[in-house]
Amino acid sequence: MQNYKFTYYGVSLAIIGIVLFSAKAVMVKMAYTYNISSEHLLLFRMSFSLPFYVLISFFNKPSKPASIKKTDYLWIIFFGFIGYYLASYFDFLGLQYIKAGLERIILFVYPTLVLIISRIFLKKIITKKQLIAILITYIGVVITFWGELQVNVPNVELGILLIFLSALTYATYLVGSGWLIPKFGVVTFTSYAMIVSCLCIIIQYIVFDRASLIGYPIEVYILGAIMAIFSTIIPSYLVSAAIARLGASNFSIIASLGPISTILLAYFILNESFSTIQVLGTMIVLVGVFSVTIQKNKNKG
């Protein structure tokens, strides 16, 4: 028997959060048409988000303050840096070179990366079924971006590598931060980690950039604000609420809708192609991810 009750409310929160997160990739591609750098676009997204995360963290204190050590706050800084700052930075850089649909498919191999990292650093056993799921997932990824590699697009390999690094850093964040969430609570931990990430972006701009942020078309600022509210703040807490109600394994199954939603959004909004081979690769990736989550549910049963 599963440990978490599958409620319609939790499923609804998960689906809305996943779709909103997926829309971020499409908005990034739209913003790039105005010749904005990855660093400035990410700065707008996180700067607009920061006040909201600070306010939410003010009204949501740690759930178990007695169990929190000073070093736990250092770990939050580390995971906020690697999980949200680096993952987002790699993602924004990669989207300069590849399509939004492909970006989302590569990112959604992170459940298999979680298994591998857990095996290497936490010595958790990977079962045969999990190994098969990993193999299926990566076959799907190869099939999906094989056609894009055949197209004469500059630096597509670099884009794929950057998106993979985004998935890897996010997977590392998930593995390493799991033991902190019960101490701080999902909402509080997410708020703290996001505040760290926002500050990292701002510090990067102050130290390495300092170029004027004035002069972009008004559409860039609007897209930055929309991205902050609808593809960062709202979905981060919707997803947290969904995980609290459904559990991480059940949520992961629903999260498989992410690649599909991005491809559909990119197709309708950006007029990107929606080829048969891409559909096939997507289905194979989803089978692999679904196999992993089913295995996790069985382990919890």
Automatic annotation (TrEMBL):
<dbReference type="Pfam" id="PF00892">
    <property type="entry name" value="EamA"/>
</dbReference>
<feature type="transmembrane region" description="Helical">
    <location>
        <begin position="276"/>
        <end position="294"/>
    </location>
</feature>
<feature type="transmembrane region" description="Helical">
    <location>
        <begin position="220"/>
        <end position="239"/>
    </location>
</feature>
<keyword id="KW-1133">Transmembrane helix</keyword>
<feature type="transmembrane region" description="Helical">
    <location>
        <begin position="159"/>
        <end position="182"/>
    </location>
</feature>
<feature type="domain" description="EamA">
    <location>
        <begin position="158"/>
        <end position="293"/>
    </location>
</feature>
<feature type="transmembrane region" description="Helical">
    <location>
        <begin position="189"/>
        <end position="208"/>
    </location>
</feature>
<comment type="similarity">
    <text>Belongs to the EamA transporter family.</text>
</comment>
<feature type="transmembrane region" description="Helical">
    <location>
        <begin position="131"/>
        <end position="147"/>
    </location>
</feature>
<feature type="transmembrane region" description="Helical">
    <location>
        <begin position="40"/>
        <end position="60"/>
    </location>
</feature>
<dbReference type="InterPro" id="IPR050638">
    <property type="entry name" value="AA-Vitamin_Transporters"/>
</dbReference>
<keyword id="KW-0812">Transmembrane</keyword>
<keyword id="KW-0472">Membrane</keyword>
<feature type="transmembrane region" description="Helical">
    <location>
        <begin position="251"/>
        <end position="270"/>
    </location>
</feature>
<dbReference type="InterPro" id="IPR000620">
    <property type="entry name" value="EamA_dom"/>
</dbReference>
<protein>
    <submittedName>
        <fullName>DMT family transporter</fullName>
    </submittedName>
</protein>
<feature type="transmembrane region" description="Helical">
    <location>
        <begin position="105"/>
        <end position="122"/>
    </location>
</feature>
<feature type="transmembrane region" description="Helical">
    <location>
        <begin position="72"/>
        <end position="93"/>
    </location>
</feature>
<feature type="transmembrane region" description="Helical">
    <location>
        <begin position="7"/>
        <end position="28"/>
    </location>
</feature>
<dbReference type="InterPro" id="IPR037185">
    <property type="entry name" value="EmrE-like"/>
</dbReference>
<feature type="domain" description="EamA">
    <location>
        <begin position="10"/>
        <end position="145"/>
    </location>
</feature>
